[in-house]
């Protein structure tokens, strides 16, 4: 059947928590692709980056994301950088699922992700790195999204309710 809702956006936008909330509310399956990658590889995303490198991680990510998009019958939260893959972009353009871009500012994302946890692409100057990633990815997120939600400082339940309300209008 494939996914019904796919959440995309940068780290700290609330994809995982919002996705879990929507899935619980609608009583459907939920999958977070970073968690699926960690289960598949038996190590954390950070460990994969350090031990195997980003190119290897992106290969695994592409395989896991495509499987989730096509097989999870519910809500899928994609890793922030997965949309860089042309193969994943094509899958998102062709899916019948709603692709929801959770947009967030650096000031809101910073406290959520802490910038001191295991985020390999945010090493060095985490705030500057996050902004650089977001600047590069924003046009892709916006192009792929069928719905864009500004999360601001809303709670997970407020964002989820906004998404559900938006979907009911369509």
Protein described:
The protein is of the alpha/beta class and 170 residues long. The protein has helices spanning 15-26, 33-41, 45-52, 54-71, 86-94, 106-113, 126-144, 156-169; strands at 5-8, 29-32, 74-77, 98-103, 147-150. The protein has a five-stranded parallel sheet, sandwiched between helices. The longest helix has 19 residues, at 126-144.
The percent range for strand residues is 5-15%
Name the average pLDDT.
Answer: 87
The DSSP helix count reads 8
The spatial strand order of the largest sheet comes to 2-3-1-4-5
> What is the element string, with H for helices and E for strands?
EHEHHHEHEHHEH
Low-confidence stretches: none
Alpha carbon gyration radius: 15 Å
Distance between the termini: 20 Å
Shape: globular
Largest sheet: 5 strands, parallel
The computed structural class is alpha/beta
- Tally of DSSP β-strands: 5
Helix fraction, binned, reads 55-70%
């Amino acid at each position: 059947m494939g996914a019904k809702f796919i959440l995309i956006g940068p780290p700290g936008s609330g994809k995982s928590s919002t996705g879990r909330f929507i899935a619980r509310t609608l009583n459907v399956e939920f999958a977070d692709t970073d968690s699926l990658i960690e289960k598949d590889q038996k190590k954390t995303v950070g460990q994969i980056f350090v031990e195997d490198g980003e190119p290897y991680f992106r290969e695994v990510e592409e395989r896991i994301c495509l499987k989730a998009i096509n097989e999870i019958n519910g809500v899928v939260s994609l890793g922030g950088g997965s949309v860089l893959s042309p193969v994943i972009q094509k899958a998102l353009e062709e899916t019948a699922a709603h692709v929801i871009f959770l947009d967030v500012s650096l000031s809101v994302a910073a406290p959520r992700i802490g910038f001191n946890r295991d985020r390999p692409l945010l090493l060095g100057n985490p705030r500057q790195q996050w902004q650089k990633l977001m600047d590069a990815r924003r046009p892709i997120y916006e192009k792929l999204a069928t719905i864009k939600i500004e999360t601001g400082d809303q709670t997970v339940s407020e964002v989820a309710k906004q998404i559900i309300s938006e979907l009911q209008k369509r």
